């Protein structure tokens, strides 16, 4: 009889835990980031801003993967691995919670400097750097997924194929 009682409590505890876990996972991803449109492998939210698409198996869209690669090697130097910040630059997973897509574009192309801080930290302007500007949406999409908690740290395990649109855009943007 006693074992019966324990089973009951255990099942109840497990149920509560599962509801808790799924609730947290859902709450972490804002509805505003939901992809409602797709064009050549690129996803857009209801406002028409670029966003990520991540399958239940963790497979990411091409742009999220590309953004991960472009972020690393240029932005990680100051903003730390996975956008999480360092002593040289702020945590972008936090910044993107309040920055709009156009704010992001303006800051990355034009740079930013906070003259009021005791230590002058400068965000360089990347407006003439094609290796950044041709992949600005990729980097934004990647950081948006990181900021929403939809993508964990490190290299995404699997990704969608690169579309012809992505290749065509890259070729025309980067030039001969
Ligand atoms: C040389 C170091 C450095 C590099 C490289 C760098 N950043 Fe920054 N970034 C900074 C600093 C410092 C700030 C904070 C500037 C301020 O507060 O005025 C900043 C601020 C920003 C902000 C605004 C954050 C906020 O909360 O307002 C964004 C967005 C950003 N960087 C994106 C990028 C991206 C994307 C890249 C790569 C293409 C990049 N940064 C590369 C140093 C850097």
TrEMBL record:
Residue ranges, annotated region (Disordered): 151-176
An annotated Gene Ontology molecular function: metal ion binding
Keywords: Heme, Iron, Metal-binding, Signal
Domain Cytochrome c as annotated: residue spans: 35-147
Any Pfam family matching the protein: Cytochrome_CBB3
Signal peptide residues on this chain, from the entry's feature table: 1-27
SUPFAM superfamilies attached to this UniProt entry: Cytochrome c
Basic and acidic residues bias locations: 157-167
Domain of life of the organism encoding this protein: Bacteria
InterPro entries linked: C-typ_cyt_methanol_metab-rel, Cyt_c-like_dom, Cyt_c-like_dom_sf
NCBIfam families listed in its UniProt record: 4cys_cytochr
Protein name: Cytochrome C protein
Organism: Hyphomicrobium denitrificans 1NES1
């Amino acid at each position: 009889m006693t074992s019966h009682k324990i089973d009951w409590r255990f099942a109840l505890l497990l149920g509560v835990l599962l509801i808790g876990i799924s609730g947290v996972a859902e709450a972490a991803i804002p509805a505003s980031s939901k992809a409602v449109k797709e064009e050549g492998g690129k996803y857009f939210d209801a406002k028409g801003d670029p966003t990520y698409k991540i399958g239940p198996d963790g497979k990411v869209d091409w742009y999220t993967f590309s953004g991960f690669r472009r972020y690393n090697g240029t932005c990680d130097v100051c903003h730390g691995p996975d956008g999480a910040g360092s002593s040289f630059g702020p945590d972008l997973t936090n910044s993107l919670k309040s920055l709009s897509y156009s704010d992001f574009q303006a800051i990355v192309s034009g740079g930013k400097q906070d003259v009021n801080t005791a230590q002058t930290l400068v965000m360089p302007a990347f407006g003439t750097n094609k290796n950044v500007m041709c992949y600005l949406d990729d980097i934004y999409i990647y950081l948006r997924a990181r900021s929403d908690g939809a993508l964990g740290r490190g290299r995404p395990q699997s990704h969608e194929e690169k579309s012809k649109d992505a290749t065509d855009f890259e070729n025309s943007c980067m030039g001969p």
